[in-house]
Amino acid sequence: MSDLRRALGEAVQAAFAAIGAPPELGRVTASDRPDLADFQSNGALAAAKTLGRNPREIATAVVEKLAGDPRLAAVEIAGPGFINLKVADATLGARADTIAADARAGAETVTEPRRVIVDYGGPNVAKPMHVGHLRASIIGESLKRLYRFRGDTVVGDAHFGDWGYQMGLLIGAVMDESPAVAAVVDAINAGQPGDVAAFNAVTLADLDRLYPEAAARGKADTDYRDRARRITAALQVKQPGYYALWERFRTVTKVALERDFHALGVDFDWWKGESDVEHLIAPMVAELDAKGLLVDDQGARIIRVVREGDKRELPPLLVVSSEGSAMYGTTDLATILDRKREFDPHLVIYCVSPRQAHHFATVYRAAYPAGYAVAGQLEHVGFGTMNGTDGKPFKTREGGVLKLNDMIEMSRDKARARLHEAGLGEDLPAPEFEDIAGKVAVAALKFADLQNFRGTSYVFDLDRFTSFEGKTGPYLLYQAVRVKSLLRRAEAEGHTTGPVTVAEPAERDLVLTLDAFDAALAEAYDKKAPNVLAEHAYRLSQAFSKFYAACPILQAAPAVRASRLTLATAALRQSELALDLLGIAAPDRM
RNA sequence: GCGCCCGUAGCUCAACCGGAUAGAGCACCCGCCUUCUAAGCGGGUGGUUGCAGGUUCGAGUCCUGCCGGGCGCGCCA
User: Fold this and answer.
1) CB proximity A395–strand B (7 Å threshold)
2) Which of residues 278-317 of A touch strand B (CB under 7 A)?
3) In chain A, pLDDT over 90 holds for what percent of residues?
């Protein structure tokens, strides 16, 4: 069953059609003036322009057509021609009953499900995740869940960055530092026996430390750089010694990444790396060559992607470097090909830093003539950067990059402290308390991020991120826990739910908010903007909290109590669904 | 230099195809716990939406210019 907004929209659109106005103008939205109405249509104003008639006149004609609709308690014209609709209490009650009985809490599914890949997270070998990965991870995770919930077949792919020049740099750096490792690598490369156990001494901390040094030296020292490139090229043809060491890099990195992702409630269906498409690259290059797309330029092989009418000339896609190596764009193109073969997606969402907008535009333009994708199928969904309170990209007080794991730990510490301060969960067993602290910490981090529109940059302020009052993740958890506690008590006292009767303003507001769920989901889906869903989740919690404060439940008369228990049940289910789509889990108690 | 993004309350952010009185949270002030979890609820203070034009019955939203900030501009990803 559709929500009230859409059901009423159909009625208003029919009324528009009946008076000869374009029916699509009869769109109904939630009212901007809750004091005046529940829903509104602004269509008469737009119709006035196309029909050359007075907007109030049109509104009057539309209102006449709507007269007698039993769902409407009042239909009024306001201002220059707004049509204000107030829904009958009985209609609200019936809608609440429907939502309460629905496992999806009033959410619809898309009519034409698609196959969708969400490429997010952006972890790289040798680099622990830092705060910059937070956005990509949690926005991507939310989009994945949202698309899946709406009925699409969705896979999340971490697209592990494990196959570029940085690997050659690191292999060289590690070998320079450790003669033991170097000896084993050289031996294996030469086809002699070598014990890879020597590689176990290499840790993620080593890689993290060596990488920036090596990258800097690679820029300054051309011999060093050339050597790293040769190693990269050798790795990419799987020279066994380099490859064995690389596997160690990949393993130590993945363990740490999985820990961080797990702590954030982020899971991937595919953990594919750039290296997984390595075998496609040689045939792909041959195919691109055969199609006449490759051009030799400055010793490299490129695809030109310039188009007529470009405001700015896009640089070409580098397919084969002058060293013969595959580049970032090469593996990205091969990944598009791989995904087409493996999954044939209708849509691929790249949830990646907006700094790479040019890069993706270039890769996409190369993919179209290659026949690997069609326009509109590949979409780069960028997000803003996290800045420090000084407006510059976030750094720790020491000037370094804050590791994601450290941030999660800081948030968890704060959650524990605040739980103690508030006297929450202290009588619970220690493992449950820890679980609650973890959920509170993750809710705080995720909601603080997801409530912002993904496209804009925002200020990262740990104190604000781990604040538990006001418009925060913990506020949402707190409301959910209060409902759960209430429902447990109701059950213990033998009370059951019953048909909803709407009487109090707080009850009206709660039902109208519940009704707005599907519209919020649809908008978040269309705009790929989880903040729309986050906003709905917050409004729902707020509406419940007001209801909870204004309407006694357990002490109410039996019929009222049953009605309010139904409302509480529906609110909890929708709230938990919305939280889950944001990647946030609520504890049972705290 | 060229291109893309951004500029909204003291701070951090919203604002549904261009619509009514631009909304939240934080901070600040005033109320509400012997009754379902006060991480809560109610009320209040706070705005020339960077500036100047333009289009429109109507502009935070669209167009132009300017000012300020961020990012990017082929062999790193």
Assistant:
1) no
2) 297-300, 302, 311-312, 315-316
3) 69
Q: Which residues contact A103 (CB under 8 A, 6 or more apart)?
A: A573
CA distance A436 to A441: 8
pLDDT tens, A154-207?
A: 999 998 888 888 899 999 999 999 999 999 999 999 999 999 999 999 999 999
* A174 & A136 share domain: no
Which of A386, A410, A439 represents a domain boundary (last residue)? A386
Q: Is the CB of A461 under 7 A from strand B?
A: yes
Q: For tokens 């073969």, what's the residue?
A: A341
User: Which of the listed residues A221, A243, A263 is the one where a domain comes to its end?
Assistant: A263
Q: Report, as an integer, the average pLDDT of A92-117.
A: 97
User: Is the C-beta of residue A135 closer than 7 Å to nucleic acid chain B?
Assistant: no
Please give the tally of structural domains in chain A.
3
Segments forming the whole domain that contains residue A53: 4-87
Do A367 and A284 have their domain in common? yes
Is residue A205 within a helix (H) or strand (E), and if so which, with residue range? helix A204-220
State whether the beta carbon of A322 lies below 7 angstroms from any atom of strand B.
Answer: yes
Give domain status of residue A185, yes or no: yes
Shared-domain flag, residues A150 and A173: no
**Residue whose entry in the numeric block shows the structure tokens 């130590």:** A252
How is residue A227 written in tokens? 């050597």
> CA A526 – C1' B18 distance (Å)?
20
Return mean pLDDT, chain A.
Answer: 92
